[in-house]
Each structure stands twice: as structure tokens, then as C-alpha cells.
Amino acid sequence: MKDHPPSITRTLLFLLWGPIVWGVQFTLSYGGHTLLCAQGASPVASQWGLAGLALLALIAIAPVAFRSGAVAARLGVLPTGGEGGFVVLVARLAAILSLIAVPWTAAGALMLQACIQGR
User: Fold this and answer.
1) CA dist., res. 91 & res. 68, Å (int)
2) Considering Cα of 69, then 18, then 6, then 87, what sign does the dihedral take?
3) Are 25 and 58 contacting, i.e. CB atoms less than 8 angstroms apart?
4) pLDDT tens-place string over residues 36-65
5) pLDDT tens-digit profile of 4-25?
6) Angle value at C-alpha 21, between 84 and 99, nearest 5 degrees
7) What span, in angstroms and rounded, lies between the C-alpha atoms of 15 and 110?
8) Residue 115: helix, strand or coil by DSSP?
9) Would you give the DSSP letter of residue 1?
10) Which of 32, 39, 34, 31 is CA-nearest to residue 117?
11) Which end of the chain is more exposed for a tag (fewer CB within 10 A), N or C?
12) In degrees, to the nearest 5, what angle opens at C-alpha 20 toward C-alphas 42 and 30?
């Protein structure tokens, strides 16, 4: 079996997985909140949507934050010699920071008075 060098695309996706998921959650939280309010949804539905979206984002980020070595091995982003400690460390730290950012974003959106601007 011939060893292949790690894929640059997979490596970048692995390194930036936490910030990418947080960015999607951030965009969908505020954009979805505004869209639901503009469509006449109840404020409670909007808040439940924000909470559910935050929970999905936390679940998506958790494997890279807590099992980053296993995720890196499965994706094949580690070099053949096993010298991938720095890549795993950076991905883990970015994911942990994203785990902090997700509830921070959700809390900010939930503290705003729901649907007041759209009506």
C-alpha cells in the first residue's frame, strides 16, 4: 500500500471545522431569527429554533474538540510519520474556542427582545 501525503483540503477543513460551524450557526441564528419574525412566526418558535441550532452546532463541533486525534486519523490529515501533533492541537483549540462562541452567540440572540424589529 502506497502512502499518500495528507490532503490540503481535508487538513484545512479539519483545522477550521469549529470556526466554520460557528460561522454557519451565527449566520443562521440571526438570519433565521429575522426571517421567522418577518414571516409572522411567534417569538417562542424563534427562540426554540435558536436553541436547537445552538445544540446542533455544539454536537457538530464536539468530536473535533474532544476526540481530535481520532477525527484526524479518520480523515487522513496526519502525515505518514505520525508527526501531526501541531495540526491536532490547533484544530482542538479552534474547536474549543468555537464551543465557547456558540452559546455566546445564542445567548446574545436570546437576550434580544424577539421579533420587536420585524413588526
Assistant:
1) 7
2) negative
3) no
4) 778 877 778 778 888 999 999 999 999 999
5) 677 889 999 999 999 999 999 9
6) 75
7) 29
8) coil
9) -
10) 34
11) N
12) 20
**Is there a contact between 51 and 106 (Cβ–Cβ < 8 Å)?**
yes
Residue pLDDT, tens place only, 81-116: 556 788 899 999 999 999 999 999 988 877 776 666
- pLDDT reading at 118 higher than 60: no
Cα separation, 43 vs 59, in Å, equals: 25
Q: What is the DSSP track for 48-104?
A: HHHHHHHHHHHHHHHHHHHSHHHHHHHHT-S-TTS--HHHHHHHHHHHHHHHHHHHH
The rounded distance, in Å, linking the Cα atoms of 4 and 76 is: 9
Cell representation of residue 9: 483540503
